[in-house]
Amino acid sequence: MKAVRFHTYGEIDVLRVEEVERPVPGPGQVLVEVRAAGIQPGEVMIRRGARHGRWPATFPSGQGSDLAGVVVETGPEVRGFAVGDEVLGFTHGRASHAEYVVAEDVNLVVRPDGLPWEVAGSLYVAGTTAYATVFAVDPRPDETVVVSGAAGGVGSLAVQLARRRGAIVIGLASEPNHAWLAAHGVVPVGYGEGVADRIRKAAGDRPVDAFIDTFGDGYVDLAVDLGVPPERINTIRDWQAAARVGARTYGEGSAASAVVVGELARLAARGGLEVPIARVYPLAQVRDAFTELEQGHAHGKIVLRP
């Protein structure tokens, strides 16, 4: 089977699509023929070695957590799944950027009817991270919440989940994404110099009650300057700033469960959550996919299709 591998830390050119042996599921595991698998900014940091102290790679290393596909083989003691089932979920084995992947049965849910493969295969990391960020700041009805990176893979879901809580959401994004945010009930505000004043203007007479930072690059300090209590600031990028001011750092790992993935999948399938898909690439074009991701302008998720 074909799978993405890299044999040393480095830039995009270290990624290869190689022929490897098809894995065999063990106890409590199933083999999934992958139909879609999202890619993540965190995978860039791992591939570069920038997260070696926290998430070291063992070479040759695979990639990929998100997955959706069809069960083609089951190991012993599998519960709840059979050959032919359509599933989505995740693996902690850095292995879903491939034609086949082994996954634990407890990390999968049945794909709801009507949920597109591209959405199903890109829901885990972005979805559970967005879920955790909103949980961390606990927006209440009519409170004002600011989200940085509001049109990105995580931000585009976080703004919708915060709106479902009844919050007034201000989304920081580039101009081309303002129409999408406004259509989802979010007040769009542009990046750049003077952003604090634009946020205050958008908030009107209301204080900014909470801040979700999906971007890093100074937004934790901006939230403090806006008067947001540190316990209601959450960042998934700037851990150093969070430690300095006492902000929270809830992310993917804080909500990494099939229960949360299933809840989000059902919500998306019935139209209660839009998961924007920026572009779908064939597995062979994994370098092109990460080139677009690393440019940082994609609205929504970038997905691989084996």
Automatic annotation (TrEMBL):
InterPro entries: ADH-like_N (IPR013154), ER (IPR020843), GroES-like_sf (IPR011032), NAD(P)-bd_dom_sf (IPR036291), Zinc-ADH_QOR/CCCR (IPR051603)
The Enoyl reductase (ER) domain, residue ranges: 10-304
SUPFAM superfamilies: GroES-like, NAD(P)-binding Rossmann-fold domains
Segments traversing the membrane: none
Pfam family, one: ADH_zinc_N_2
An example molecular function term from Gene Ontology annotations: oxidoreductase activity
Keyword NADP part of the UniProt annotation: yes
Keyword tags: NADP
Signal peptide: none
Name of the molecule in the record: NADPH:quinone reductase
